[in-house]
Amino acid sequence: MVDDRARTEPTRAAASAPAAEGATVAGARPAVASARRPDHDELRIRGERLDAEDPLAGYRNRFVITDPDTVYLDGNSLGRLPVSTRDRLREVIDVEWGTELIRGWSRWIELGRRTGDVIAGLIGAEHGEVTLSDSTSVNLYKLAAAALDARPGRRAVLTDDDNFPTDQYLLQGLAEAGDLDLRVLHSDPDRGVRADDVGAALDADVALVCLSHVAYRSGAVADLAGITMAAHEAGALVLWDLSHSAGSVPVGLSEAGVDLATGCTYKHLNGGPGAPAFLYVRRDLQPVLRQPIWGWFGQADQFDMAGRYQPADGIDRFLVGTPPVLSGYAALEGARLSAEAGIEAIAAKARALTGYLIELADARLAPLGFRLASPREDAARGAHVTLYHPQAWQICQALIQERVIPDFRTPDRLRLGVAPLYTSFGELYVAVSRLRDIVAAGRHEAFPTQRSRVT
Ligand SMILES: *Cc1c(COP(=O)(O)O)cnc(C)c1O
């Protein structure tokens, strides 16, 4: 069901929040206006105003929202379902798969490139430099291995200990297999990787620098242009993981001269669970690089069925095997929606939402033992805010039960993702009110301290 009341819902939900809060705070008396701290009211009213002035507010109706009372703050792990994706997939299933059958491949064969061109516009790349392929993990392997092959005399790979685990594991595997020196910088988990630290660790032995642009834990934005330039000056290639950047902040790959990048489509690009990742290779590097998984989708004349592998020209040589078509269409629809809204408008709202969330946290959560674990400056953050609390895991479970969906990140952090296309300011006010009520009343203490398999 599509929520066609979405435009009015945040205001209604926000308006009900102070009463709920008054009723549950320890020693609560019936909520009366004069008993409220004025700054809370001010913050609530400001949220309402920000929603009323929000140029992207209409995009909320473009998503399937079945339970408007649930505040979804995990769009950076799995974006919501766009209405157009649901409709497109139904059509593809009925018409293309159901009726055209194998003949559909004449269209499907172009899907990765078409989607790649839409994503290129969101990450500052050119047409023909981006395609859909495999998962982010597999792409990291293919691209890192290709880069290492292109720098045969060099024996070192540079990353940081705040990088996403899959990135670290893949680099560990490559380093072990190739007997390379894996240099792991220490980064502050709240502030992210620093360009100066990368600069200091670069030398003539480094073949590849592999980092995340927006840190998965804190949301800190790395200095992509500065680090890329420093790596190039040292003769290394750079591979950026854009999983938390694509669809949330502008990236500027071409402008910075980035060599290689990859990222997820199921987070801010709303491509759906398990949707294929995208990969980017700068055009002039495409003929020079060879990736290590030689499959028939990367072959020059795929349907010649020739006996000898000869890599295709262009970005197609980074493909491997048959792509997931249904998920590919979902990735295309999701990316189109972001492209339609425009990445600058999305990023501006991400800054406003996260800024508002930090203000709410300062005013209402800091007294309960929360501390900001993300950068405070607007330009230094992506589209999530992380809060430290020693009981973060228990709080996370209680919050989900009370219909606010964040996620937990080790060791003691609550990650609150905002999705500029569908998160409202009013929802953030409600989420923080519920969070405050839970912790003030100690309701989280009834939940297990032991973590579950999926957080
Ligand atoms: C989510 C995420 C991934 C996930 O990779 P998959 O191969 O899709 O599982 C990788 N890197 C970063 C930085 C992420 O945030």
Automatic annotation (TrEMBL):
Listed EC numbers: 3.7.1.3
Biased composition (Basic and acidic residues): 1-10
Ligand binding (pyridoxal 5'-phosphate): 136-137, 164-167, 241, 244, 266, 296, 322
Pathway as given in its UniProt record: Amino-acid degradation; L-kynurenine degradation; L-alanine and anthranilate from L-kynurenine: step 1/1; Cofactor biosynthesis; NAD(+) biosynthesis; quinolinate from L-kynurenine: step 2/3
Compositionally biased residues, Low complexity: 11-31
Single GO MF annotation: kynureninase activity
GO cellular component, one term: cytoplasm
Catalytic reaction annotation: 3-hydroxy-L-kynurenine + H2O = 3-hydroxyanthranilate + L-alanine + H(+); L-kynurenine + H2O = anthranilate + L-alanine + H(+)
Gene Ontology biological process terms in this record: anthranilate metabolic process; L-kynurenine catabolic process; L-tryptophan catabolic process to kynurenine; NAD+ biosynthetic process; quinolinate biosynthetic process
Stored Pfam families: KYNU_C (PF22580)
Function: Catalyzes the cleavage of L-kynurenine (L-Kyn) and L-3-hydroxykynurenine (L-3OHKyn) into anthranilic acid (AA) and 3-hydroxyanthranilic acid (3-OHAA), respectively.
Subunit note: Homodimer.
Name this protein carries in UniProt: Kynureninase
Organism encoding this protein: Rugosimonospora africana
Recorded name of the encoding gene: kynU
